[in-house]
Design brief:
41% helix, 2 domains, Metal_Hydrolase, TIM Barrel, 3-stranded parallel β-sheet, transmembrane helix, single chain, 6-stranded parallel β-sheet, 429 residues, binds 2-acetamido-2-deoxy-beta-D-glucopyranose, alpha/beta, metal-binding, metalloprotease, dipeptidase, binds zinc ion
């Protein structure tokens, strides 16, 4: 027995020796992970360059050169600028959701008008660089743009405040080319809570309201991708339960690694898998780790999703130009390829990714979701348009000031009561 034990211990010792005999040698492969970006487009779920165009250029593009080194332009030498065409080319970007974001302080004011201005500036930017950017409104056009060596350019609006609680706005934004909408930004709207309500257990939660469900169903009918970054946990759960189509997190990371209300908890990740959606990992240092976060911390979030729910549900949603602090190694949009090179390398504390896996992370997962959203749209061709206005109470409760900015408020009040009061004898009413 004793001998056997000693033999066993010697055996274990040899095993350990064998393993440590190959220290973290980064074995050179005959290919680099980023080579996959030649074959499939790298699609980023979230870039706020258009908001910088508003803040820095007042949306005037005639004297603005995206095809230049913006770092050397004093106006653009700001902590929220990470993007220009030379660096996008280095970064091998193949597709981008450009964000038509307007601030939450436009909520109940001129959000719809301001959103139109941001959609317009994105379209003018795409038109200005026809050799580099291609306007895209259908999933199939993303591969076509890639074949032509251009960045597929999709439009996303960030926050339901951009609708001013009107389904007409949603439908017209779809006609203007918008293919994705984040349900909220960092403010509550009359039909959905934002993530910050989760920072205080005592804050009353409304989640997604009954009328809010109509917005999701109407997005399904139109073929617009629902994005549940920025919403509260309750809204994440409600949208996942309501949507007939896969949804995305366009720019969120993993709560279990970095507990932050902008990040996604494990039980929600499991529901996202059932929904066949995708979480596109946000690079922002504060959502990844802290101010000294590195590219390895971002890789940690990516690997977490792969190991927990599978490689089919993870993508890239950098948030470049929307934040001021990016991890060491991901200083700007030229750095994406390093993520793919590192993931493919041997000798790290993760299983090296295969080419097929890297392609899914790069863009195939997002393209799958986009195509499914289109397929659901096509299957709903006979569905009726949802035409109920938001209930007056929902808007009034969220913001009593609505009486100052909305007209014809009676039209939002319940029709049944008006009918009863006006047309039925008092004793019946
Ligand atoms: C950009 O601004 C920083 C200070 O914020 C300064 O140190 C740097 O020299 C500037 N770069 C250029 C190219 O102007
Ligand atoms: C949490 O919310 C409750 C109810 O709205 C409020 O009374 C309280 O001040 C909040 N606490 C903090 C720390 O914000
Ligand atoms: C909101 O969502 C949370 C989490 O899913 C749930 O526990 C709560 O009951 C919901 N509240 C309402 C009013 O639906
Ligand atoms: C920042 O995050 C990294 C990675 O999680 C951690 O190792 C480091 O201790 C953190 N630094 C600080 C100052 O909290
Ligand atoms: C309503 O308007 C008042 C006065 O302009 C302002 O102080 C208050 O913050 C507004 N309330 C909301 C919910 O916007
Ligand atoms: Zn955002």
């Amino acid at each position: 027995m004793v001998l056997t034990n000693i033999n066993f211990i010697t055996f274990i010792g040899c095993l350990v020796l064998t393993i440590t005999a190959f220290p973290s040698n980064k074995k050179k492969l005959n290919w680099q992970g980023s080579d996959v970006l030649n074959e499939v487009p790298l699609i980023d779920g979230h870039n706020d360059l258009p908001y910088n165009l508003y803040n820095i250029e007042n949306n005037m593009l005639n004297n603005f050169e995206l095809d230049s080194d913006l770092k050397s332009n004093p106006k653009w030498n700001v902590s929220s600028s990470f993007t220009d065409l030379p660096r996008l080319r280095q970064g091998k970007l193949g597709g981008q959701f450009w964000v038509a974001y307007v601030s939450c302080n436009r909520n109940y004011k001129d959000a719809v008008e301001r959103t139109i201005e941001q959609i317009d500036v994105i379209k003018r930017l795409i038109d200005k660089y026809p050799k580099d950017l291609m306007y895209v409104t259908e999933a199939d056009q993303i591969m076509e743009a890639h074949r032509q060596g251009k960045i597929a350019s999709m439009i996303e609006i960030e926050g339901g405040h951009s609708l001013d609680s009107r389904l007409s706005s949603l439908r017209i934004f779809y006609e203007l080319g918008v293919r994705c909408m984040t349900i909220t930004h960092n403010c509550n709207i009359p039909w959905a809570d934002n993530n910050q309500v989760d920072n205080n257990v005592s804050t009353p939660k409304r989640n997604l309201t009954e009328w809010g469900k109509n917005v999701i169903l109407e997005m399904n009918r139109l073929g617009m991708i629902a994005d549940i970054s920025h919403v509260s946990e309750g809204v994440m759960v409600d949208v996942l339960a309501t949507s007939k189509a896969p949804v995305i997190f366009s720019h969120s990371s993993v709560y279990n690694i970095k507990p932050h209300s902008r990040n996604v908890k494990d039980h929600v990740l499991q529901k996202l898998k059932q929904n066949n959606g995708v979480i596109m990992i946000n690079f922002y240092s504060a959502y990844i780790a802290n101010d000294t976060a590195t590219i390895y911390d971002v890789i940690n979030h990516i690997n977490y999703v792969k190991n927990f729910i599978g490689v089919d549900y993870v993508g890239i949603g950098s948030d470049y130009d929307g934040v001021t602090r990016m991890p060491i190694g991901l200083e700007d949009v030229s750095k994406y390829p390093k993520i793919f090179d590192l993931l493919a390398e041997e000798g790290h504390d993760w299983e090296p990714w295969t080419e097929e896996e890297l392609k899914k992370l790069a863009g195939l997962n997002l393209i799958r979701v986009f195509k499914q959203v289109e397929a659901i749209r096509d299957s709903l061709i006979d569905e009726e348009i949802i035409d109920q206005p938001i209930p007056y109470e929902d808007v009034f409760t969220a913001n009593p000031n609505v009486t100052q900015c909305w007209t014809d408020l009676d039209k939002y009040k319940p029709v049944v009561n008006r009918f009863i009061e006006e047309f039925l004898p008092a004793e019946i009413a």
